């Protein structure tokens, strides 16, 4: 009997504006508000022209967090009712964000729906989210997310096929006949890892990596998947294929609450990895976030590589990766808050450098135009033009390729880099769950202050250091591909103060939280001579100035940051 397709009346919600990476809310919001998930999914489908939807292919898979299976069932039922012809779904509903991008491109899908809240906490009391990726495999552009939001504010009904039940545990095709549909609706459950692993085989020299990791003079590594989606990819690629001992990969079983951890790969939250690296038994360490797109790199005894330095080192050693030997290098890019370490490599190698707002979609546009090969963000994201998402495992294999070629330690490679280019000291202060009104009011007052002509040339003295303002603005970006202008968006861009010595202070509201506001202060300062000092000591004067200018502690009621990276 053909399955029934229903049109269900609903009422809109005013708060479904996608942030930097989709819609993120507490789990209870999706569970307790009637049709909250359905409304947003319908808004996604309604944003796609009906002619493009009919008979099309879409990809679905998430990071395994709590509410993932229930959400996927609704997404599939609504896809069928909205004219989609085929759904590609990861085995058990599991797909890393990089693998989603890979599959969208492989199957020429019109897009993918990703149930994830990335590096945010999971479990019944944690966060959940829905992200939409378009046909290029990357996050939807602002024009698309704006359209989704506008639809969500006026939605009156959604289409669903409630009797459709998919078995996520069995690989292969499942066919469903729907009423008033001439062709059956097809669901294909695919191996979550294989297509993505094959892509990496065509980028890196797996034989050289296997020799590095399991050969006669192999290094010892420690990989922490933080109970996120990266676990199955680490086991299959790093252990089974490249020969790492199974016990070198920890927390590799995806759990719906990430084992009670905050799946954010930084020194504060990846404590299992940081602690295990301290005694020096491992030469290389790495951690991944909940959906597998972010990474943290550590050297022996926990030597920390900032994400800003990481992308700069990969850029300087890019031809250690066979893929770039074949394709050449078209350009480098970084988000505006990321340190200028990459700029120095670009200048020395005479490769174009692009400075974009925060959000991988801006990189994707440059890649689609053939203008960009490598990019990174200070928020532990690094990637190449093989897909249209940041890619944690790709970044780790890039670093291992450099180690295999140069036969040096992580620390020696980075110190050589500083000796060659100088060092950009960089830190980020996060003030999480701040009252939204207080945060927005502070940012508005800050913008008024720095926009005043008298602010430029002001001097700030801390101890024996004097900093003079050379430029201050709300960062504005004109896309060199389509001339789209991004301005006055404090979650994508930010307020920046640039001093005469090139040092920068940046204020920004994060667009990836689910509750309250997160205020971020970024501090970046270049040194040519003093390159082996403590970061927080070197940046303390600028941190004092940043807090003085913003009056952040007074305005938010906070005595200090929630997180320093």
TrEMBL record:
Cellular component aspect of the GO annotation: cytosol
Tree of life domain: Eukaryota
GO MF, one example: phosphoglucomutase activity
Keyword tags: Cytoplasm, Phosphoprotein
The Alpha-D-phosphohexomutase alpha/beta/alpha domain, residue ranges: 16-157, 195-302, 325-421
Biological process annotations from GO: carbohydrate metabolic process
Subcellular location: Cytoplasm
A family per Pfam: PGM_PMM_II
Keyword rRNA-binding assigned: no
Family membership: Belongs to the phosphohexose mutase family.
Protein name: Phosphoglucomutase 1
Lineage: Eukaryota, Metazoa, Chordata, Craniata, Vertebrata
Gene name of the encoded protein: PGM1
């Amino acid at each position: 009997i053909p399955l029934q397709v229903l049109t269900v009346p609903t009422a809109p919600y005013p708060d479904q504006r996608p942030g930097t990476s989709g819609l993120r809310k507490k789990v209870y919001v999706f569970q307790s508000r009637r049709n909250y998930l359905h409304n947003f999914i319908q808004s996604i489908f309604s944003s796609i022209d009906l002619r493009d939807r009919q008979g099309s292919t879409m990809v679905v898979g998430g990071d395994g967090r709590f509410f993932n299976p229930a959400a996927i069932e609704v997404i599939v039922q609504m896809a069928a009712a909205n004219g989609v012809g085929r759904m590609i779904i990861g085995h058990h509903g599991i797909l890393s964000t990089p693998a989603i991008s890979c599959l969208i491109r492989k199957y020429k899908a019109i897009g993918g729906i990703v149930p994830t809240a990335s590096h945010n906490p999971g479990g019944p009391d944690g966060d959940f989210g829905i992200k939409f990726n378009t046909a290029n495999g990357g996050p939807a552009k602002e024009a698309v997310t704006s359209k989704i939001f506008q639809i969500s504010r006026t939605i009156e009904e959604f289409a669903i096929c409630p009797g459709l039940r998919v078995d996520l545990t069995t690989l292969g095709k499942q066919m469903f006949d729907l009423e008033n549909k001439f062709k059956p609706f097809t669901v294909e459950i695919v191996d979550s890892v294989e297509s993505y692993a094959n892509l990496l085989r065509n980028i890196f020299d797996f034989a050289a990596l296997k020799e590095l990791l399991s050969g006669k003079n192999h290094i010892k590594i420690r990989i922490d998947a933080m109970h996120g989606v990266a676990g199955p990819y680490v086991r299959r690629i790093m252990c089974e294929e490249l020969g790492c001992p199974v016990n070198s990969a920890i927390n590799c079983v995806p759990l719906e609450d990430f084992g009670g951890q905050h799946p954010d790969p930084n020194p504060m939250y990846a404590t299992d990895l940081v602690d295990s690296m301290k005694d020096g038994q491992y030469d290389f360490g790495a951690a991944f976030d909940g959906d597998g797109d972010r990474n943290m790199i550590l050297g022996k005894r926990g030597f920390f590589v900032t994400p800003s330095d990481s992308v700069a080192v990969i850029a300087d050693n890019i031809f250690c990766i066979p893929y770039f030997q074949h394709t050449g290098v078209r350009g480098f890019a970084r988000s505006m808050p990321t340190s200028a370490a990459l700029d120095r490599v670009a200048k020395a190698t005479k490769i174009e450098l692009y400075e974009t707002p925060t959000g991988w979609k801006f990189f994707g546009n440059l890649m689609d135009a053939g203008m960009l090969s490598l990019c990174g963000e200070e928020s532990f994201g690094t990637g190449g033009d093989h897909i249209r998402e940041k890619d944690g495992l790709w970044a780790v294999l890039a670093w291992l390729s450099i180690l295999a070629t140069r036969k040096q330690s992580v620390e020696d490679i980075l110190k050589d880099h500083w000796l060659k280019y100088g060092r950009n000291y960089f830190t980020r202060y996060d003030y999480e769950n701040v009252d939204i009104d207080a945060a927005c009011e502070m940012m508005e007052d800050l913008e008024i202050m720095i926009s005043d002509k008298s602010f430029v040339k002001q001097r700030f003295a801390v101890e024996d250091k004097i900093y003079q303002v050379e430029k201050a603005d709300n960062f504005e970006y004109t896309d060199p591909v389509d001339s789209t202008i991004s301005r006055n968006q404090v979650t994508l861009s930010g307020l920046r103060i640039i001093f005469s010595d090139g040092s920068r202070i940046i204020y920004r509201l994060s667009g990836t939280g689910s509750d309250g506001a997160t205020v971020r202060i970024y501090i970046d300062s270049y040194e040519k001579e003093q390159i082996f000092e403590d970061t927080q000591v070197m940046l303390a004067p600028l941190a004092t100035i940043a807090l003085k200018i913003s009056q952040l502690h007074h305005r938010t009621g906070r005595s200090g940051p929630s997180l320093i990276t």
